[in-house]
Amino acid sequence: PFEMKAVRAMPDGFEIEFTKPADAKSAGDLASYAVESFVYKYHPVYGSPPVNNEKCEVKGVKLSTDGLKARIIVDNLRENYIHGITLDGVRDKGNFYSLVHPTAYYTLNSIPQGQKLVLSEVSTRNSAVANKPADHQSGSKKGTVAKVASAAKTSTAKAVAKETAAKVPSFKDISAVLTKNICSSCHNTTKRQIGPSFVDIAKRKYSNEKIVQLIANPQPQNWPGYATEMPPMPQVSKADALKIAAWINSLK
User: Fold this and answer.
1) For position 176, what pLDDT does the model report?
2) How far apart are alpha carbons 31 and 49 in whole angstroms?
3) Could you tell me which of 114, 15, 8, 127 has the C-alpha nearest to residue 62?
4) Contact 71/117 with Cβ under 8 angstroms?
């Protein structure tokens, strides 16, 4: 099968080796590649969603003469982070087969030293950018459309927040949300665990919006008595975070 045979760390990105030669056109297109780095939350309870996710821009690609290796220049490499490398657009030399498994995961414990590629010797072609439709709206019209869209978005967000605040969920309602977002791994309703109890959090008298902010961007200095810091949880949706906040504040 047409697969990734190996992935190797490079000073400026990664080298992907294939089991069969790749098609030069698809393998030389930046739109065929996507890289994202993340880590997992380390705590005594098993399981964690990816946290601290960041996109890593692919800035160039160089395909070997035999088509068996593609070296990509990747911006924003982070040591000690897992890098998910997805090659959805790469095809085999006959332009018939796609990769059976298009995503590889590389834990970048250290960025190696060595010779970096220069942009003049790599392909920077990106069909996703080239095929993007042109914006023919005039400046004033574009601005008006943007303002209307922004106002509608703000109005919808306020309506959702108001509706969530009006309906305080019971523990039965919120239990699945807490489990899905692994809140229950570190927090208990009334007892101190890895993190403070929800009742103790309620005593801080944060607003619902403040709790939503603290879920996405915690401030461990506010809880100096806990050895394990809570990592940022941006993967928790605004809707879920508002439900959690409303329930916590109902414990006052």
Assistant:
1) 86
2) 26
3) 15
4) yes
